[in-house]
């Protein structure tokens, strides 16, 4: 009794009571966070309750994508900033994590060099470049996971928003940004492993990355991150700041004439979104075991937009649902009919923009409304 | 009703003019939309601006509010603030509010939320994140919503309002913003005769505490305002004075009234 009262009065409690769909989503995520690792670790293999490790890893990947989709929906759904370069922030977070994991390999690399990662030995480098310093430390690395994407987003956003680049032009330059990074990271002399990227990771904080327990912990952390990010995003969009974002999305110049510094409002949300994308990348890399320049690919960034569009833009939970649903479909189709997946994705996107402008979430809501309408007269009849 | 419309007040004795334009020129691709325009609005004044389509009325407002930069000329607010040095947000915070020709409200927010966003106060990101509405602010919002006749629509989306109601909502947003100078572009467009007269009365009411510049085509509305009138034509002032006087001016009849 007491506990529920405290919950109802707390800031988070009030937020969630007003957001039913979000509460369901959080419950599902919480259940997954607890049950998936339990079913993997405690259920005997062969039991129908057993979840094999490869499924745990796959689900963990989906959750990283869900976090990335949340990040995009925050800026696109609520502020109208259609970033076609959000994959870049994800990849940067991933590279930062990759650098830390590379340093953790130590002398267990193929060349047995304790000071240099294998690819540097291969390139005949003799010294660690200065920008690799500090990545031995886990805490420094986690700090950089947030800082690197944030710094890029800050500089990029400051230039773009101050010059009032909006709409298609902004989308194009974000796409150019990720493409430029793709080309840069392909180069061997950048010092990030060239086109092979960073891989052959051994462990994290001393725990073997291949072990089931580590994988389950990473999965649970991914679920937890999506939950926390969801609550953070919900808090942001429910605040007055969130309403200013919507005002900017729908009537940017009106918002300026009300006296709001539109560029500051955009910059803040863009940086927050980039940090979330970076965290998603950092969780992704230890689970898939590799990060390479392909993650900067322009198509990757466009796919994120498709997840959000299909799930339902501007709802937050739609982004999570869209990311998981589309990636589940992707896993299935790339396995069953690899040639058709890209066409499928394109078709899904076209269909969803033409017929389901509010995505899966919109369809569900429509069905609910229709059912409520149909039930309304009967319930009145029952009352009279 | 007068208690409802409050503002910081302009009654400082030394203030000469609220808004002063001198020799302002602005061309778009060689076409002079504003041509050597001069205008002087006194503190507390209600000024009506009329003129044919394309006379440059909206462009003039763009220049005052920082949306468009003039090629040359002076634009001063409260005697000595050079408005050409500031952008839209600065100018809004200096105390100039604007209603657009096409009613512009945030359609996906409710009437209440629209007014809340416009409510005077700190405009920083941090404050918006931690914003908590005080009960006085809440009262103020409700008061103004009532004043503009939208009480029954308080929690409806602004997008569901009629054209005329959107105009009123936007005027309400202007009032809570608490500017010293209000620029109101065609507030009666799309309104019934009755609504038009109510709008004129509302603007006169607002004028008790604010300086108001209003652009309109509706002559009954202008008549109801009963104020000094400026006739704009081809980017400059053609005539200025009481409505009876300017409407007797043969040039004004030729370019505007006689059509
Ligand atoms: N950004 C712009 N680029 C090019 N031409 C413009 C621009 N803004 C205004 N004009 C031109 O300047 C002239 C004045 O336009 P303005 O909108 O100020 O007229 P107005 O007096 O408000 O007319 P109306 O009564 O139709 O609202 C018009 O010929 C218009 O086409
Ligand atoms: Mg106009």
From TrEMBL, chain A:
GO molecular function: branched-chain amino acid transmembrane transporter activity
Record GO cellular component, one term: plasma membrane
Top-level division of the source organism's lineage: Bacteria
Keyword Transmembrane found: yes
Transmembrane stretches, start-end: 21-43, 49-68, 75-97, 138-161, 168-186, 217-237, 265-284, 304-328, 340-357
Keywords, sorted A to Z: Cell membrane, Membrane, Transmembrane, Transmembrane helix
InterPro entries membership: ABC_transp_permease (IPR001851), ABC_transptr_urea_perm_UrtC (IPR017778), LivM-like (IPR043428)
Protein topology in the membrane: Multi-pass membrane protein
Locations listed in the record: Cell inner membrane
Keyword Transport: no
Major localisation: membrane
NCBIfam families named among the record's database cross-references: urea_trans_UrtC
This protein's name: Urea transport system permease protein
Source organism of the structure: Zhongshania antarctica
UniProtKB/TrEMBL annotation, chain B:
InterPro entries named among the record's database cross-references: ABC_AA/LPS_Transport (IPR051120), ABC_transporter-like_ATP-bd (IPR003439), ABC_transptr_urea_ATP-bd_UrtD (IPR017781), BCA_ABC_TP_C (IPR032823), P-loop_NTPase (IPR027417)
Stored SUPFAM superfamilies: P-loop containing nucleoside triphosphate hydrolases (SSF52540)
Domain ABC transporter: 19-259
CDD domains with a match to the protein in the record: ABC_Mj1267_LivG_branched
Domain of life of the native organism: Bacteria
Keywords for this protein: ATP-binding, Nucleotide-binding, Transport
Listed GO MF terms: ATP binding; ATP hydrolysis activity
GO cellular component: plasma membrane
Entry protein name: Urea transport system ATP-binding protein
Species assigned in the record: Zhongshania antarctica
């Amino acid at each position: 009794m007491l506990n529920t009262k405290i919950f109802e009065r707390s800031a988070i409690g009030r937020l969630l009571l007003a957001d039913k769909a979000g509460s369901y989503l959080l419950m599902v995520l919480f259940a997954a966070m607890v049950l998936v690792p339990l079913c993997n670790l405690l259920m005997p293999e062969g039991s129908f309750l057993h979840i094999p490790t490869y499924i745990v890893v796959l689900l963990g990947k989906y959750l990283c994508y869900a976090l990335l989709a949340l990040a995009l929906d925050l800026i696109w759904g609520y502020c109208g900033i259609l970033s076609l370069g959000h994959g870049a922030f994800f990849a940067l977070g991933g590279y930062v994590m990759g650098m830390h994991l590379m340093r953790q390999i130590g002398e267990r690399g193929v060349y047995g060099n304790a000071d240099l990662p294998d690819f540097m030995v291969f390139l005949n480098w003799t010294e660690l470049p200065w920008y690799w310093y500090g990545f031995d430390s886990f805490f420094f690395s986690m700090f950089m996971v947030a800082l690197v994407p944030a710094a890029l987003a800050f500089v990029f956003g400051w230039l773009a928003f101050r010059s009032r680049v909006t709409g298609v032009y902004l989308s194009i330059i974000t796409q150019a940004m990720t493409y430029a990074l793709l080309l840069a990271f392909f180069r061997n002399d950048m010092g990030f492993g060239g086109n092979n990227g960073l891989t052959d990771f051994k462990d994290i904080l001393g725990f073997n990355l291949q072990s089931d327990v580590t994988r389950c912990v990473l999965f649970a952390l991914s679920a937890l991150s999506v939950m926390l990010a969801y609550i953070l995003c919900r808090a942001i969009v429910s605040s007055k700041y969130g309403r200013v974002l919507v005002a900017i999305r729908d009537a940017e110049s009106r918002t300026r004439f009300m006296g709001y510094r539109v560029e500051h409002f955009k910059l803040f949300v863009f940086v927050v979104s980039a940090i979330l994308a970076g965290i998603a990348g950092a969780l992704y890399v230890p689970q898939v075991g590799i990060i390479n320049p392909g993650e900067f690919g322009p198509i990757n960034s466009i796919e994120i937009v498709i997840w959000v569009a299909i799930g339902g833009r501007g709802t937050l939970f739609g982004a999570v649902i869209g990311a998981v649903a589309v990636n589940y479909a992707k896993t299935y189709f790339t396995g069953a009919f690899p040639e058709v997946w890209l066409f499928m994705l394109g078709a899904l996107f076209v269909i969803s923009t033409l017929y389901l402008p509010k995505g899966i979430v919109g369809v569900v809501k429509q069905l609910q409304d229709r059912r409520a309408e149909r039930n309304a007269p009967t319930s009145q009849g029952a009352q009279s | 009703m007068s208690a409802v419309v409050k503002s910081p007040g302009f009654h400082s004795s030394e203030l000469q003019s609220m808004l002063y334009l001198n020799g302002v020129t602005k061309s778009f691709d060689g076409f002079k939309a504003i041509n050597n325009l001069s205008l002087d609005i006194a503190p507390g004044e209600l000024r009506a601006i009329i003129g044919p389509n394309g006379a440059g009325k909206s462009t003039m407002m763009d220049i005052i509010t920082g949306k468009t930069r003039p090629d040359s000329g002076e634009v001063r607010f409260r005697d000595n603030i050079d408005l050409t040095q500031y952008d839209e947000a600065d100018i809004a915070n200096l105390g100039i509010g604007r209603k657009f020709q096409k009613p512009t409200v945030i359609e996906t927010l409710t009437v209440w939320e629209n007014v809340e966003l416009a409510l005077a106060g700190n405009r920083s990101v941090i404050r918006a994140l931690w914003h908590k509405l005080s009960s006085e602010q809440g009262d103020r919002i409700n008061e103004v919503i009532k004043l503009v006749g939208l009480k029954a629509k308080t929690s409806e989306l602004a997008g569901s309002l009629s054209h005329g109601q959107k105009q009123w909502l936007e005027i309400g947003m202007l009032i809570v913003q608490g500017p010293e100078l209000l620029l109101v572009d065609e507030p009666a467009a799309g309104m019934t005769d009755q609504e038009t007269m109510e709008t004129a009365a509302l603007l006169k009411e607002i004028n008790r505490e604010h300086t108001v510049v209003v652009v309109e085509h509706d002559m009954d509305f202008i008549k109801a305002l009963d104020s000094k009138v400026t006739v704009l034509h081809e980017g400059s002032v053609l005539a200025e004075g009481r409505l009876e006087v300017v409407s007797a001016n043969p040039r004004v009849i030729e370019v505007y009234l006689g059509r």
